[in-house]
Amino acid sequence: MTRTTHTGIAHRYDFVLLFDVVNGNPNGDPDAGNAPRLDPETGLGLVSDVCLKRKVRNFVTLVKRSAAGEPLAGYDIYVKERAILNHQHQRAYDALKLKDGGKAKERQDSVDRARAWMCQTFFDIRMFGAVMSTEVNAGQVRGPVQITFARSVDPIVSLEQSITRMAVTTEREAEKQEGGNRTMGRKELVPYGLYVAHGFVNPFLAVQTGFSDDDLQLLWQALQQMFEYDRSAARGEMATRGLVVFEHDSQLGNARAHALFERVSVRLKDRTRPPRSFADYQVELDERDVPAGIRIHRL
Question: What is the pTM of this model?
Answer without folding.
Answer: 0.90
